[in-house]
């Protein structure tokens, strides 16, 4: 019998924008449903260097410490991605912390059209009191059970980061269904506090309507979504615009 599992993926890259940048390392860690009905971090894990087809910029090397000589004989991303993203058996979903980044490189043709869970967006919903929502802050704020400290190091490498994220995902699945995590991941991030500007750090409930209206027009979709969410909580859904009158018949 196939055991349902979710594959947590983390990428290290030469930069943030394909096709100008590409993958130089991939790591993964599986989270599977046990016979007892609990989600658990499993032995399904791994990592590969990937040749990005270009030099790794020094600014990026300073983050993950992957050098050109480390990836010299590695496969290209298009060649190795299918085996990681759509193994046999297939995961019921892929997951990543701030999954929008991974999805830039894990395109639908490579992933087989997989659904994605964003553990960053889900953490905003489930643990709004966290001082921050980065993978590593959540690690030390929450201290997930069973997370081996050394296995989760060094940070900013593909497997250790996937390993840490998998522990967050396991704990999220103890509080919410896969369907709920997917729904939250498909929406913009619901920020518990204003992230920037004169109201930085304030809960949305503390803002007046004028401040909410201003933030609802922000360029950042997460800020817009969060401001609109609070406006809806206060005043109900915005009324739909009136329908255009039908053109009168000339006959």
UniProtKB/TrEMBL annotation:
GO terms for molecular function: exonuclease activity; nucleic acid binding. It comes from the Bacteria. Residues 5-178 form the Exonuclease domain. Residues 223-251 are annotated as: Disordered. CDD domains: DEDDh. SUPFAM superfamilies: Ribonuclease H-like. Keywords: Exonuclease, Hydrolase, Nuclease. GO terms for biological process: DNA metabolic process. This is 3'-5' exonuclease. It comes from Alterirhizorhabdus solaris. The lineage of its organism: Bacteria, Pseudomonadati, Pseudomonadota, Alphaproteobacteria, Sphingomonadales.
């Amino acid at each position: 019998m196939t055991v349902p599992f979710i594959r947590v993926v983390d990428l290290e890259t030469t930069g943030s924008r394909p096709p100008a940048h590409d993958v130089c390392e991939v790591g993964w860690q599986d989270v599977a449903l046990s016979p007892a009905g609990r989600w658990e971090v499993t032995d399904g894990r791994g990592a590969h260097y990937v040749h990005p087809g270009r030099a790794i910029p020094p600014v990026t090397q300073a983050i993950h410490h992957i050098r050109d000589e480390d990836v010299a004989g590695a496969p290209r991303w298009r060649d190795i991605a299918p085996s990681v993203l759509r193994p046999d058996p297939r995961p019921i979903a892929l997951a990543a912390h701030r999954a929008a980044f991974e999805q830039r490189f894990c395109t639908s043709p490579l992933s087989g059209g997989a659904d994605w869970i964003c553990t960053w967006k889900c953490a905003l919903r489930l643990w709004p009191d966290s001082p921050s929502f980065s993978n590593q802050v959540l690690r030390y704020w929450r201290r997930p059970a069973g997370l081996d400290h050394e296995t989760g190091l060094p940070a900013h490498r593909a497997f250790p980061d996937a390993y840490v994220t998998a522990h967050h995902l396991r704990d999220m699945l103890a509080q919410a269904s896969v369907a709920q995590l997917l729904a939250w991941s498909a929406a913009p991030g619901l920020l518990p506090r204003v992230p920037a500007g004169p109201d930085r750090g304030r809960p949305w409930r503390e803002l007046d309507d004028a401040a909410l209206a201003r933030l609802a027009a922000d360029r950042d979709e997460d800020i817009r979504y969060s401001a609109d969410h609070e406006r809806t909580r206060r005043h109900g859904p915005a009324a739909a615009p009136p329908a255009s009158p039908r053109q009168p018949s000339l006959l």
